[in-house]
Target: LysR family transcriptional regulator
Amino acid sequence: MDSFEGIFEFVAVAESGGFSAAAKKLGCSTSHISRQVSRLEERLGSRLLARTTRQISLTENGEFYYQQCKYLVNGLQQANEQVTQQQYQLNGTLRVSAAGGFAENFVAPALMTFAKDHPELSIDIDFNSRMVNFIEDGIDFAIRYGELNDSNLIARKLISRSMMLVASPDYLAKYGTPNHPNQLKSHRCILANSDHWTFNIDGIKQSIKVSGNWQSNNSNVVLDACEQGLGIAYMPDSTFTKSIKQKKLVPILAPYCITGATSWIVYQNKQFMPLRARLAIDYLLEYFAKWPN
Model:
């Protein structure tokens, strides 16, 4: 059994790229990680890691050994979790990074329901739109909106929503109602993440450059500004449901609005993840699969 010592630590170093990150991942000291990996190398009689002052990389033997060991580690963890899942009480802290009004207004309440089913579990949601380092920041998964660029991450579609263009009755009474997207160039538009809005014009997606006197990357602030008559807003339709029912906002140019505003669950491409993260992801995917929008 001594031959198995150090394998978990070695795999953690290989996947996280360093001793400190591996120690944080496994909840132990950096010296323990270094000691276990060194002992593993001594037993094998082969150098697995190339260490420099700036970085740690796998040797040729290390890469071969990692490819074999990662399946062993993954299989052992999956076996343990499957055996204990029925009686296992989720605990620890689930750390989520989220951005956007959809995450605030819909994902967070869904996770609150999940938390009620697992009272020993702590949930920490950090609302920001910055790029996160999943290992260094200790993030289990993130909720992101729109186009994703990082191919090193796994992205699973949570939901796609139609876009909607709205304005307050007061604004439309004062400035008139546009009947074509090109007329938005002469209107006050409330900007969120971009000053280029895309519409379906004659069956083709076309981008219209707009401008205005109010801009915010927070959808709730954009919504409030629109209700106050500061301009026209263009966001996913679920943002405006309540305001439209209350007749605070009016949809306009509906035939031109595009579909496919997508929110994603994003997480690190790794061989295993904590049970709490995996079950939370599965819960959110199932929850929003039944969502009316």
Remarks:
- The chain has nine helices and 14 strands.
- The first helix runs from residue 7 to 16.
- The first strand starts at residue 49 and ends at 51.
- The domain at 2-84 is CATH 1.10.10.10 (Arc Repressor Mutant, subunit A).
